[in-house]
Structure formats: C-alpha cells, structure tokens
TrEMBL record:
<dbReference type="InterPro" id="IPR002937">
    <property type="entry name" value="Amino_oxidase"/>
</dbReference>
<dbReference type="GO" id="GO:0008767">
    <property type="term" value="F:UDP-galactopyranose mutase activity"/>
</dbReference>
<feature type="domain" description="Amine oxidase">
    <location>
        <begin position="26"/>
        <end position="276"/>
    </location>
</feature>
<dbReference type="GO" id="GO:0016491">
    <property type="term" value="F:oxidoreductase activity"/>
</dbReference>
<dbReference type="GO" id="GO:0005829">
    <property type="term" value="C:cytosol"/>
</dbReference>
<dbReference type="GO" id="GO:0050660">
    <property type="term" value="F:flavin adenine dinucleotide binding"/>
</dbReference>
<dbReference type="InterPro" id="IPR036188">
    <property type="entry name" value="FAD/NAD-bd_sf"/>
</dbReference>
<protein>
    <recommendedName>
        <fullName>Amine oxidase domain-containing protein</fullName>
    </recommendedName>
</protein>
<dbReference type="Pfam" id="PF01593">
    <property type="entry name" value="Amino_oxidase"/>
</dbReference>
Length: 454
C-alpha cells in the first residue's frame, strides 16, 4: 500500500505509455525523438531544453551556459546535421587563458609559447621532473602536479580550479576530471612551447547554429529542433512521486494531477538525487547520502553591452586571478554575430558557488561581475551595459570525490533494480558533453526500438 502522501488523493487523469521519459533536456529529447509515439516526455519547465536554452535580454541573446557542439560519434553528427541542415555552422573554438604572467591560448599546456621565455623554461623543467617521477596521484591536486609540474600548476591549474570547484583540490578524486583535462605528452608540450603556431585541443572542431535573422537564436535552436520530433511532450508537468512497483509516475501541472503508467520503461534524466528521493520507499540512508552528493551551481551573468565590439577576444577567456569572481567570460557574438544588435555585444560571466552554501542575490552578483569586468579592462571607450540577467543552473557541475562516486554507483544500481534507467549528464551524475549526452540517449532508444531476436 502506498504511503498517504503524495498518493493520498486520486489523480485527475491517467495516461498510459510504453516508455515514460522524465525531463526534456537533450537526453530526454534525443531519446523521445527516436522513440516517437511509443514514448511520453514530461518536463517541469514551460519549454524544453534543460540547460540547453537561450534567453533574450532586449535584443541580445544569451545561452544559459557556454555551449559549443563537438561531435564525438559519427551517428550523432549525422543526425544533428540532418536535423539542423545549413543552420549548423562550423565554429572552431578560440579560447584564451589569462594568467599573472601573460595571456596565451587554451589549452595552456599545449600553448606555452604565448608566455614569457623564462616562464616557459620553468614550466618545461618542472614538467620533465614531474613526468620522470611517474607517481600515482591520490587526489586531484596530486594529479595536476604529476601531469603538469609545479610552475604550470601555480600559474594556471591551481588558481583556476580553486575558483571552479570552490573547495580544497586535495579533497577531490584523482579520477572523473578527464573531460576538462588535456594531458599531452612531454614532447607535445615542448612543441607547443617552441612553436608560435597555436596548438589545437581535443575539441578543435566545433559547431554552432546560425539561423536566418528574425527568429530564435543560440543553442536552443538544437533543443527546439529535437523537441519538434517528440510527438507527446508534456510541459509544466512536475514529477512529485514515482512508484516503480505499479509503474506509475505522478505529476502536477496547471491542469491538475496526472498519473502516467508505463508498460515497459521509465527513463529519468532528472538529477540522480532527485530521482532516488522521488521513488516510493527508497532506502532512507541512500536518500540522505544522495542529498549530500557534492555539486556546484553555475551562476551565469549575462551583460548586454552597447558599443563597439572588442577585438581579438576569442570565443571565451579563462581567468586565474582570484580578485574577480568569474572563471571565464564568454563572448556571444563570436559564436554568432547576430546574437546582438550591430552596435552591441553580449558577454556571459560564469561564476561558481558550492550548492551546499548560500546563494548570492542576483543584484549583488551582477554588481560583483561588473566590478570584475572593470578590473580586467573589458569595457572600452563608448561601451556601456544596457541590460543584465542571471541564469542559475543547480546542479551545474558534479563534484568528483571517491565517496560521491560510490554513492552515485549505489543509487544507479538501486534505480536499475526498480526498472528505472538514469540517463543524461545529471541523471547519471557525471559530466558529459552535449554530443555525449545525445549519443547515449540515441543508443538507448535504438536498443529499445530494436526488434527482439530469438
């Protein structure tokens, strides 16, 4: 028998479907688009996309967080290119790193040539020493030291990662960070130190949508294109409870309470701790451990600027200095010139906060970012900020610790035992790019759609 709440009262309506997908981010939309009328996708927000959404501030457009497509699988590339056609344009990323000893291209370890000669020499000497030791790192701080040596760590990796993770680096796991950590060989680093030609990182082949003027812009073009392929997408449906035994998910919407009954599969792209907590009679100890999973929220501060566009910014710039709040500044018109009026440009500042800590008020955060922008000298003569907005993503980044990985693995096994499949970046409580998210979702839906064999 179900607990009295939230199941005490009967639902206003019931819907039966073969596959029920919770969440209409990229993972849910990709799976739903492939399954067609065999699936229902429910989403709490008033439009699909999850993190892959784009907002308009006056006549300026801003993605919620930085987005650039890197295709890691040919099937995903073929599907997305067929979906978007000529709207999807090549956008090879140009990222810069600001350090106290100068500016160079990202990734810094492959582009030491942009730094002063004495800094390059010190970086290379420490790097060779670190690699000669060939030690096994026990935590993230040790991993950085063993990969790059003391000088490069003090110059970039330590201050940047302190701002990014907002907790001691020695408390983080030595595994789980490969998505943002290019680890080239000593020879490759030496080549980047001795050649003025910029070295490419792992994600040198980028893509970004550039639709015709007059309509929606930004990476939400991709989300909306996928959503258009989902026959049954229920927006403004917040999941309030999941009963795996009766294969029922209860939602609340402006129209009332709906019970969705799935005959075969339930896929959850909701954050892993949320899915566990929603499950009827989930072990309380597991629920508590999932609630305590460490993560950071991303506060993206969008600034609409009127005035001449700055030159040679790159698509985004990383900032190691700890007297400014942002880890990086993202220049939206570098991705698509029509993201702002011809006489203006937009910049997105990324600020990280531990999710277990206090959340800064939006107006205080904007003021802090504006001071930081002034400190780094971004606004030139004739430029003024004419609009701002804050977008909050929580969770934004999963924090990797050995204990957290054990908890996430236990939670995933528990859900699988109940017939619930976690999917997506937060559903599986890891980091994955947009391409990886879609690859996993398409692959799952293809397996689900494949005819049974005897």
């Amino acid at each position: 028998m179900l607990d009295p709440s939230p199941w005490a009262d009967p639902a206003d309506r019931e819907v039966e479907t073969e596959v029920l997908i919770l969440g209409a981010g990229l993972a849910g939309l990709a799976a739903g688009s492939l399954l067609g009328d065999r699936a229902v996708v429910v989403e709490a927000a008033d439009r699909p996309g999850g993190l892959v959404r784009t907002e308009r501030v006056g006549n300026y457009w801003f993605d919620h967080v930085i987005h650039l497509l890197y295709f890691s699988h040919p099937d995903v590339e073929a599907r997305v290119r067929a979906l978007l056609g000529d709207v999807l344009r090549p956008c090879p990323p140009d990222a810069r790193v600001e350090t106290v000893r100068g500016t160079t291209r990202f990734p810094v370890q492959l582009n030491l040539h942009g730094l002063p000669p004495e800094v390059r020499a010190a970086c290379l000497a420490d790097l060779r020493t670190a690699h000669a030791r060939n030690t096994t790192p026990g935590d993230y701080e040790e991993l950085l030291l063993s990969a790059f040596g003391r000088t490069l760590c003090e110059l970039f990796f330590f201050p940047y990662n302190r701002k990014l993770w907002r907790r001691p680096l020695s408390t983080l796991s030595a595994s789980g960070f490969h998505w943002n950590l290019t680890r080239p060989s000593v020879a490759e680093i030496e080549r980047g130190a001795n050649s003025a030609r910029p070295a490419e990182g792992y994600n040198a082949r980028g893509w970004y949508p550039r639709p015709a003027p007059g309509g929606r812009r930004g990476m939400e073009v991709l989300s909306q294109a996928l959503a258009d392929r989902v026959p049954d997408l229920r927006l403004r449906h917040t999941v309030t409870a999941v009963d795996p035994m009766s294969r029922t998910v209860r939602t609340r919407s402006p129209e009332g309470v709906t019970d969705f009954r799935f005959t075969h599969d339930c896929v959850s792209t909701l954050p892993l701790p949320t899915t566990v907590e929603l499950c009827h009679r989930a072990p309380e100890a597991l629920v508590e451990r999932c609630r305590a999973l460490p993560r950071n929220r991303v506060r993206s501060v969008a600034l609409a600027v009127q005035g001449p566009r700055p030159r040679d910014t790159g698509h985004w710039r990383y900032y190691t200095r700890e007297d400014v709040p942002f880890t990086r500044l993202v220049f939206m018109t570098e991705f698509d010139p029509d993201m702002a009026p011809a006489d203006g440009w937009g910049v997105l500042a990324e600020v990280l906060e531990p999710s277990e800590g206090p959340r800064a008020a939006d107006d205080a955060l904007v003021a802090d970012v504006l001071r930081g922008v002034e400190t780094v000298g971004l606004l030139g003569p004739g430029s003024r900020v004419v609009g701002s907005r804050v977008f909050t993503s929580d969770p934004g980044y999963v924090v990797f610790t050995d204990k957290a990985r054990e908890t996430a693995d236990e939670a995933t096994r528990h859900l699988a035992s109940l017939g619930i499949t976690p999917l997506g970046r937060y559903g599986t409580w890891t980091y994955s790019s947009m391409s990886q998210v879609m690859e996993e979702a398409f692959a799952w839906a293809a397996r689900r759609s494949a005819p049974a064999t005897t």
